[in-house]
Amino acid sequence: MRALLGSWLEEWERSGPAARQIALAMARTHLEAGHDVIVPQLLTRRAFVDQLRATTEGAGATFHEFALLDPRETVLGRLEQRSEHETAGSFSARELMEKQGNEPGDAYDAFVAALRERPDAVVIDDPLSERAYETLLRLVR
User: Fold this and answer.
1) Which portions of the chain are predicted below pLDDT 70?
2) Which of 20, 36, 65, 100 has its CA 20 to 30 A from that of 49?
């Protein structure tokens, strides 16, 4: 969502909240039409998770929060190997982190800390395993 907004990187402090509001409106519309919504995002802001929950429940749907969590060194290793396409207007997590003055491990650490404050979140370790997939299927049915 964020990369669809003009000047999203230059105005990163404004583009984040705007993108979250757009995402909530889209989710509400889709839920009210009877469809499921998945937010594949690293969510560290408790307020946004609460807004997602309220939007979901307001549309008469059930809210689930799952965190697929690998060890810090595994995640940072993947980030280091990941290449980002440098096309105009595309979202770049690296550029955003640099603009915000964050290091790569900051997002991981913030996410883990945020999960401790969200006891309803189901944390699935070893997310690439068959067991993790079976757990997800069982919990969303």
Assistant:
1) 83-90
2) 100
